[in-house]
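Reading a protein record of the kind used here takes little practice once its layout is understood. The fold follows as a row of integers, each naming the local backbone shape at the matching residue. With these conventions in mind, the following record can be read line by line:

_____
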Amino acid sequence: MPHTKLRRLVTISVAVSLGATALAACGSSDDNDSEADSGPVSLTYWSWTPGMDKVAALWNDGQGKKDQIKVTVKKQASGDTLVTKILTAHKAKKAPDLVQAEYQALPTLVSNDALADIAGDVDGVKDKFAEGVWQQTTLGSDAVYAIPQDSGPMMFYYREDLFKKYGLDVPKTWEEFAETARALKKKAPESDLTTFSANDSGLFAGLAQQAGAKWWTTEGDKWKVGIDDAASQKVADFWGGLVEEGAIDNQPMYTPAWNKALNTGKQIAWVSAVWAPGTLTTAAPDTKGKWAMAPLPQWSAAENVTGSWGGSSTAVTTDSGHKSAAAKFATWLNTDPEALTALAKEGGIYPAATTAQTSGAFTEPPAYFSNQPDFYTQASAIAKTTAPSAWGPNVNVAYTTFKDAFGSAAKNKSDFGAALTKMQDDTVADLEKQGFEVAE
């Protein structure tokens, strides 16, 4: 759809909700295009990535010096905290030139007219990213609201030694995954293949994405919410069924008990993303070199698609007086080999740019996976199969409801489908409360 349509989806003139859900309609980003990019230009970039100031220094001493464009990084918190801060600053027309934004936050920022369309400044950049990742920065329109920075393609992690001990095969489909969970329970009743956790909404969102879910789409000038669509119901019923029958655990992730389960072999697999080695290094230090990574199980053997869990982008704000200069830095930051190597070294990110996923810091496997030399080669191939996502302007409301509704359902081994319906209803109600028109 044309980029102006997304902005027209908001008909209210509210300022900023501290819950980061209220969205205000403003004019097109074209309203503030008079730039003074001749001569020295100073840009400010809000980012939470560790070491981003060191990466920006490479720009300032190299390409930035040639182009007379200096970038200063201001360290920020991440998540909804940063979204709220950006919207508050934008209300006063004092947002920085550049911001780091998670993909799911982009619709909120765009609907508030906080992000500029930089399509005219990034010709030829699209091909450097997987289609499903690039789509998240365009919101399905002909505009470009950000440059992908890092991504979180999902994959399957398992204890290679324990799979061998129990005679288990790595599941290639979700049906095989369920059969593997049941087989393990018969052979080692005190162990679990994995757990269903409701304390990180991104996991379920990524699984639904892989299944083909489209949680937010547009229909004319209205938002359409499909959180309880057939694909998502399929995912909810699958995991709810496994929890109800006791084939997998129902405890949350990131707790001392979860860490212990991973470290002792009580939980022998984890559906996660490319960043999992870092988590496992801390959670299960005694099992280093005993894990392996494989593609995510598929809903049918003929498919080859993954979801994403995490990831962020670099966007230019509508308040910037130097949008072209800012877009030039955003492009360099996320496509230049030197910049990408520095991002990996200083910030520990997995780059969204496909050419960087098997070069530089990614020619050797993570130390925790030294037993799998082709770790990043496999990860890069998986990343290319990332499914498109469909984010909307009130992701935080859906995620909060998920934690409450699915958290209760997992604990009580009750109906996951009902929890999904609760997510749908709460999300629609919030959109309507904020003044959005919602299609049935």
